[in-house]
Amino acid sequence: MTIITFISPDNKKSTVTAEVGTTLMEAAVENDIPGIDADCGGGCACATCHILVPDAFKSSVSPMEEDEQFLLDFLDNRQKNSRLSCQIEITDELDGMIITIPAQ
Question: How many other C-beta atoms can be found within 10 angstroms of the C-beta atom of residue 54?
Fold first, then answer.
């Protein structure tokens, strides 16, 4: 199990235990994390699971694919470390990661 902390748009911290092999979006939805709507259920089709990955963990997450890049391009609040949580599989290397959820 991996420990992940989510910081919601209203600055509420929620620390969860997540199963390796699931996605960050699944961990957020299972734990009712505010700001992760996941309207498409993880199909990389809506960008309602937008997160900011800390620089210290950028090399530990899978590279961004074209579909994710395309969806992020439409966000007004996109940042250099923006990702979709449905596209990031939880691994042991992500243990201790603190994820920020930007305001919509």
Answer: 13
CA 89-48-55 angle, 5° bins: 50
Per CATH, the number for 2-100 is: 3.10.20.30
13 residue type, one letter: K
Q: What is the pLDDT of residue 104?
A: 78
- Backbone phi and psi for residue 82, each to the nearest 5 degrees, phi listed first: -70, 140
Domain ranges of the chain: 2-100
**What's the whole-model pTM score?**
0.94
Tally of CB atoms within 10 A around 92: 9
Q: What is the mean pLDDT of each run of 10 residues along the chain (104 residues)?
A: 96 97 97 94 94 97 96 95 98 98 90
